[in-house]
Design a protein that fits this description.
Arc Repressor Mutant, subunit A; three-stranded antiparallel beta sheet; disordered N terminus; 6 helices; about 150 residues; mainly alpha; 3 strands
């Protein structure tokens, strides 16, 4: 019996929209892989950790409720709890109880976390631009959607 080949993400359907969406998914996967590898190699950060630091660095007072952080990252509560634990272990963030609602827990960025984010930001941005430029046609469409 011949081996079955795995379909590519660009073959998710016969319609032009399905093929285009498959290209978007393939680009997303390639870009995420390159960003994660570059951040880990140069700064010792995972992609989720970098994005959490970015959200916290831009938040008022450098803090977000755990639910807000989860929503901003597209992660569930359990995943965010583990992520914040890694930030805490690295000295980049910590948990703090809400003074008005003892059930509310905040994640707060530390100065070390802010510094690591600022160091990693150029790597993230350069790697993102390089990765998008590899698929110039699709990247141009994506940039046209997001440019203000």
């Amino acid at each position: 019996m011949p081996a079955m080949s795995q379909p590519s993400t660009t073959d998710l359907g016969a319609s032009p929209d399905a093929r285009m969406w498959g290209r978007v998914l393939a680009l997303h996967a390639r870009v995420e892989q390159r960003l994660g590898a570059a951040l880990q190699r140069r700064h010792g950060l995972g992609l989720s950790e970098y994005r959490a630091l970015a959200l916290l660095a831009q938040a008022p007072d450098g803090e977000l409720r755990m639910q807000e952080l989860a929503g901003g990252l597209g992660l569930n509560q359990s995943s965010v709890t583990r992520l914040v634990g890694r930030l805490d272990s690295a000295g980049f963030g910590y948990r703090d109880l809400c003074p008005d609602d003892k059930r509310g827990v905040y994640t707060v960025i530390t100065e070390a976390g802010r510094a690591r984010y600022e160091q990693a930001r150029p790597t993230y941005e350069e790697t993102l631009t390089e990765a998008l430029d590899e698929d110039a046609g699709l990247a141009a469409v994506l940039r046209g959607i997001t440019r203000e």
